Amino acid sequence: MATPTLKNFVNGRFIDPAGTELLDIVDPTTGNLVARAPVSTVADVDAAMTAAKTAFRTWGRTTPSERQRALLRLADAIDAESDAIVEAQHRNTGQPRATIAADEVAAGADQLRFFAGAARLLEGKSAGEYLPGMTSWVRREPIGVVGQVTPWNFPFLMAIWKIGPALAAGNTLVLKPSDTTPESTLELARISQGILPDGVMNIVLGNGGTGAAIVEHPVPGLVSITGSVRAGMAVAAGAAKTLKRAHLELGGKAPALVFAGVDVAKTAAAIADFSFYNAGQDCTAITRVLVHESIHDEFVDAFVAEARSRTTGSGDDTDNYFGPLNNVNHFGDVVRKVAALPDHAVIATGGHQVGTAGFFFEPTVVTQVRQTDAIVQEETFGPVITVQSFASEEEAVTLANDVNYALASSVWTRDHATAMRVSRDLDFGAVWINTHILLTAEMPHGGFKQSGYGKDLSMYGVEDYTRIKHVMSSLE
Fold first, then answer.
1. Given 68, 99, 104, 253, which residue has the most CB atoms within 10 angstroms?
2. CATH number of the domain that 353 lies in?
3. Smallest Cα–Cα separation from 162: which of 249, 254, 83?
4. DSSP-assigned letters across all residues of 30-79
């Protein structure tokens, strides 16, 4: 069978790009080629931006109820097309199909329904007379065209996080999916035909150069990326050239702080779930476990046993707790980081490739690390978890905050006062208590420091895709 060549989606149609360069799309469970994708050029990006700009003239003036109806129809269509989306994404990510179906497709449709409702709930200050004889009010308006870049770890769900608030607020968009995982986003484009007006949502495929062309294009008023810190810095620098706004959801190095008095076995099992989910390829995943010294050894024993029970590497994805690392370059990066561990670090379990086909990596637990070690300070984005001990609450918070990332964290304790103090003192955009990683459309998601700025999900996320205008009128 011939390898398919993917197309861009512009102005409501799938079209061949102007560029002729192609990228290989590889199934990470086997390493086999499954498709080729174009590297869209500046001309391709310009065509998509023109379509989005033209469509905004109409979409930007639709009523909130009209946008709500379109998004609700799209959510229903996503549910109906779940199997096609799952298969498209599984070819590109190797994630277990059940995981994609539940945690991305069903969750994405649900979150889109939230954004549909949010379209009708945008608020501003009430009108009032703040100067004699003058009435002032605030208009909350769509920005116009927005440019967006999504990552490879949750390709479909992250596309929903981008398009949902942008479209609910009345914007049109040009989105570039990751160069390794474009197919589920193209399924979303296909499903949108006949539901979203032509040009409202445009998808261009390509590499980092294509993303830079989106960021630096003069049309978008905002650019949004979910990705690495390095990519986020590039987007912020590119956006600065035309003083457009940037919305950045970047990396993480999430700590789990485990205090004395917890049920060690139960806590170790839960933390293993949240650490190794999606092969650790989640910016909110637990990557550092900080354990009170009185239960450290007991916890390590229980956590290692839990790690060994999380299977991967099977050709039958129903047998896998998590799938492969996404691509050969990322796989090589994780392997190098584990190989570069300092002599004092101890690999309590894992540390190796699973099998000979694809990019599967063992669940890995590393103990005896120091706060200054690269494995503690730098994002691994794989199934590699470090464990450290602490003697006091103050030390635990200090160790947790002593990284450049500030996206997610969790506190594990039976003491209410400890949970309240530590959740206050942790310098992260999200703090979970006796759980981790769970998200809901109604609550904001986003970090501090080098984890970026701006919020996804919730009304805060929708407001990020709007601008504020003051209007004053004479009463005479």
1. 253
2. 3.40.309.10
3. 249
4. TTEEEEEEE---HHHHHHHHHHHHHHHHHHTTS-HHHHHHHHHHHHHHHH
Residues 96, 209 within the same domain: yes
Could you tell me if 102 and 68 are in contact, meaning their C-beta atoms sit under 8 angstroms apart? no
- Reading the chain (476 residues) residue by residue, the pLDDT tens digits are 789 999 999 999 999 999 899 999 999 999 999 999 999 999 999 999 999 999 999 999 999 999 999 999 999 999 999 999 999 999 999 999 999 999 999 999 999 999 999 999 988 788 999 999 999 999 999 999 999 999 999 999 999 999 999 999 999 999 999 999 999 999 999 999 999 999 999 999 999 999 999 999 999 999 999 999 999 999 999 999 999 999 999 999 999 999 999 999 999 999 999 999 999 999 999 999 999 999 999 999 999 999 999 999 998 999 999 999 999 999 999 999 999 999 999 999 999 999 999 999 999 999 999 999 999 999 999 999 999 999 999 999 999 999 999 999 999 999 999 999 999 999 999 999 999 999 999 999 999 999 999 999 999 999 999 999 999 999 99
Longest dimension (CA), the chain: 80
Nearest 5°: the CA angle 204, 205, 210 is 85
Three-class SS state of 474: strand
Q: Is 101 helix (H, G, I), strand (E, B) or coil?
A: helix
Residue 280 resides in a domain: yes
CATH number, domain of 196, equals 3.40.605.10
Active site residues: 249
Residue 196 and residue 169 in contact, taking contact as beta carbons nearer than 8 Å = no
Sheet holding 128-131, edge to edge: 128-131, 134-142, 466-474
Domain span at 338: 254-433
User: What is the β-pairing status of strands 32-38 and 405-406?
Assistant: unpaired
What predicted TM-score, i.e. pTM, was given to this entire model? 0.97
- Name the pairing type of β-strands 430-433 and 201-203: unpaired
